[in-house]
Amino acid sequence: MSKHRVSRRQFLNYTLTGVGGFMAAGMLMPMVRFAVDPILKASEGGDFIPTPQKVSEITAEPTRVDFKFEQQDAWYTSEVSNTAWVYKDENGEIVALSPICKHLGCVVDWNKDKANPDHFYCPCHGGLYTKDGTNVPGTPPAAPLDVYPTKEKDGFLLLGKAEPRKGA
Ligand code: FES
């Protein structure tokens, strides 16, 4: 008898290990895919979110625009509410500013501080910004308000992801 002959016990071991491994891989692959899939999916960053604001109704006076969108956070989808301060500048260009104060993240309001009319005002620590979102020196915020990229579709305003103002 050859020394390399496979015994019945070894044959069974090999076969069961092979079949077991194949079955385990078959069960694990969907689980691994489920775990990793949301991470591998293309990010939806750069998408523009529709708002209820008609472009034709935007004036030179900053107006608060509230909008909602679905946020995909790995496996969890949630509805998120957000806000922008929107107006048309002297060239008729739409400006959309984030309301999040660059000091500690409170929410700024337009024209609410009687001592500083026509400014964005942060009630938390008295932060001030001019109409274009520039932080007023001598008040706590150290940077201008973030800016939303804008688009128009079917007469309505769409907003991208707010980002720090260029050159700031
Ligand atoms: S959070 Fe706005 S001034 Fe401090």
Quick recap of the structure?
The chain is of the alpha+beta class and 168 residues long. The chain has one helix at 8-40, and strands at 49-54, 63-73, 76-88, 94-97, 109-110, 120-122, 127-129, 150-153, 156-159. The protein folds into two domains: 1-41; 49-164, Rieske Iron-sulfur Protein, CATH 2.102.10.
For this entry, give a set of tags.
168 residues, alpha+beta, Rieske Iron-sulfur Protein, 2 domains, three-stranded antiparallel beta sheet, 1 helix, binds FE2/S2 (inorganic) cluster, metal-binding, Rieske_2Fe-2S_sf, oxidoreductase, TAT_signal, oxidoreductase activity, acting on paired donors, with incorporation or reduction of molecular oxygen
Q: How would you describe the overall organization of this protein?
A:
The chain has 168 residues and is α+β, with helices and mostly antiparallel strands. The protein has 1 helix and 9 strands; from the N terminus they run H-E-E-E-E-E-E-E-E-E. The protein has one helix spanning 8-40, and strands at residues 49-54, 63-73, 76-88, 94-97, 109-110, 120-122, 127-129, 150-153, 156-159. The strands form 3 sheets. A 3-stranded antiparallel beta sheet has the order 1-9-8, with no helix packed on it. Strands 2-3-4 form a 3-stranded antiparallel beta sheet, with no helix packed on it. A 3-stranded antiparallel beta sheet has the order 5-6-7, with no helix packed on it. A hairpin with a 4-residue loop joins strand 6 (120-122) and strand 7 (127-129). The mean pLDDT is 89. The protein binds FE2/S2 (inorganic) cluster. Residues 101, 103-104, 106, 122, 124-125, 127, 140-141 line the site of FE2/S2 (inorganic) cluster. FE2/S2 (inorganic) cluster (FES) is lined by residues 101, 103-104, 106, 122, 124-125, 127, 140-141.
